[in-house]
Design brief:
- The complex is a heterodimer.
- By secondary structure, chain A is α+β, with helices and mostly antiparallel strands.
- Chain A is built from nine helices and four strands.
- Chain A has helices at 3-19, 22-57, 71-83, 95-106, 135-142, 156-196, 199-207, 212-252, 262-294, and strands at residues 61-65, 87-93, 124-129, 148-152.
- The longest helix of chain A has 41 residues, at 156-196.
- The two termini of chain A are 24 Å apart.
- By secondary structure, chain B is an alpha/beta fold.
- Chain B has helices at residues 41-48, 74-78, 96-105, 111-125, 140-152, 170-185, 197-203; strands spanning 2-10, 16-25, 30-34, 56-61, 64-65, 81-84, 158-162, 189-194, 206-211, 214-219.
- A six-stranded mixed sheet of chain B has the order 6-7-8-3-9-10, sandwiched between helices. In chain B, strands 2-1-4-5 form a four-stranded antiparallel sheet, covered by helices on one side.
- The model of chain B has no long low-confidence stretch (mean pLDDT 91).
- Classes of the chains: A alpha+beta, B alpha/beta.
- The interface between A and B is medium-sized, with 20 and 24 residues.
Chain lengths: 296, 229
Amino acid sequence: MKISEIEFFVREAWTGFLRSGIMSVVAVATISISLIVFGMFLLILFNVNSLVDGLSSKLEIVLYLNDVPDTAKLQSLKNKIEAVNGVKEVRFVSKQTAWNKFQQNFQGKVSLEGILNQNPLPDSFIVKVEDISMIAGIAQQFSSFPEINDIRYGGELADRVHKFVQTIKVAGWGIILLLGSATLLIVVNTIRLTVLARQDEIMIMKLVGATNQFVKWPFILEGIMIGTAGAVISSTILRTGYTILITHLQEALPFLPFVYSTGKLNLIYLYVMGVGIFLGFFGAWLSVSKSLKTNA
Amino acid sequence: MITLKHVHKIFPNGTRALNNINLHISREEFVFLVGPTAAGKSTLMKLLYRADEPTEGEISIDRINVTTLPDEQIPFLRRNIGVVFQDFKLLPRRTTYENVAFALRVTGTSLLKIRRRVMQVLDLVGLANKAKSLPHELSGGEQQRACIARAIVNNPPILLADEPTGNLDPETSWEIMQLLAKINLHRTTVLVSTHAKEIVDGMRKRVVALENGQILRDQQLGVYTHEDQ
């Protein structure tokens, strides 16, 4: 490809874009809207995922110990627990720490003075697991440890949370797939309309001896331009909209872990842009190739 | 220059458009293709620039076999054949200049050469002062001149005109035919299909008469209707 050819393609694509006027505006608007819907769902899914991850990271196994061990024993027990497959993190909570925390939690609500004059709480280990679906199996393994008196891991609650997480993830991907296909169809068809509107141009180009490559490229570049314009508009709107919305939501629901990390969010905006540009290219390529076949 | 040997064309619906056509047109000839509507004139033209393929027979242009030409070679065949249409087929949102330049741009000619050549051709067809007009601002005759300018801008050795005066009044039709004759004088082989009896009779060129897909008559210095008919 020569420089003069590339210049011709770009110039033709640009004049084609301008000359199509309303058609180009409608195409860009359609693509922007469908990408915004797509992007909105990506952001929602992203937040739900983060919420669900937050939820599952709160699940842990608590191991209550029989009697107060000495420091050496404690360390060897901790090592034993850590050695169990699937254990992510082990934290020791002494009976004193547990008592302090307990008192803190009930401070002002109930007066414990006089009811309990000694600490009834045992020493304990708090165990976090790598995968919450394995939590029951791991908890089971600790029952053979003689030092351990009692095991608590949320049992049925853990199973429910795990199922909920799985459902949300599968449904999320299903919807993304559906919405992605809908966006693909809308964008490809919109671009196809801009190509069909200029069928006469394609026919004349072929009649005066333009090679297929020469006919194709201006249309493909125009498709990329339309896709890019739609992508830039939609990701700008998504970005602004999300920032405003999330600030308000966080004020109203401070306990929910909304996604703030700009790195992760930028990835979504980039992804939306990439999809838009690619679909512009793909739609134009598809329709112009089809159009070339019918115009022998 | 142009040779058709035993050319048949049967459309998928069974219509027999051309029936055993044998025709030879020499370099720099001017030939009228006459006959009633649906005689096969347009079909014959389309076979020449490979907008369609014959069912049977062989067509060669400048010793190149058009019928067996691979698809990717078609653009290069078409650069050697200018085509003029009854309905002009100008791009509506482009100026006269752009419409004519289009034919050169798609062949990758440099902008400087394009400018020189387009102005030269617009001058030849008498449209130099309408270069910046859009097609709808031109009269029918002017639009046909623009179409002719586009057809000859890359100096093709052959010019095909399919009913070029079909949409024009008699006076304008004469001007267009005179223009085609002038282009013929610039060493271009010209094949014109037409219904314009007065013009054909007045110009006294070679006349090939088609009817029901067959060549009825092929006559040097001919007229539209033979005396016997």
